[in-house]
Write the structure tokens for this entry.
Amino acid sequence: MLIIGIAGGTGSGKTTVVHQIMNELPDTEVGVISQDSYYKETHNLSYEERTKINFDHPRAIDFELLVNHLKELKAGNIIEQPVYSFVTHNRTDDTIITHPRKVIIVEGILILSNPELRDMFDIKVYVHADSDERLIRRLKRDIAERGRDMNEVINRYQTTLKPMHEQFIEPTKAFADIIIPNDKYNTVAIDVVRAVINQRIL
């Protein structure tokens, strides 16, 4: 099994890169695991307390479960991925049954910050985008998909996202094997990743 880690700041275009890589591969051979599914469960907290959690700090992620799940998949076992709700800021009772695949893509802003998880990746990719561009994308997404208002998103960006990005995310670029500038015309980097994948799975 080939495990690829795709990191980068919020709104950097990780999802686009994941889709570009997957487009060329058979569905049956590729699985995607999102770090967002592995936020720690917070059933013991009230909704108000949950809204105050710093979701851009490595402490918010259940890395232990994510590492264990990857180990299970590598061993050929089926896992039950948690399902996280951004509306309630908590895990739901649902899970996603995930089967082992030849290629597993793990994507998320903090995945290269955890040494144990990082060591499991065969290819480490970092998607880089200008900070203004990332803020604009984050605004559009959070307002359209996550029920946030503009002031809330901007406030969160200034108080949490930006400092956390500078402290925990940007430095992990140093661990990447490939850095992809987020540019829709940057097909070469995607082709390089695909070539490595094809070499491994054919």
Remarks:
- The helical segments are 14-23, 47-51, 63-74, 115-118, 131-145, 150-169, 187-201.
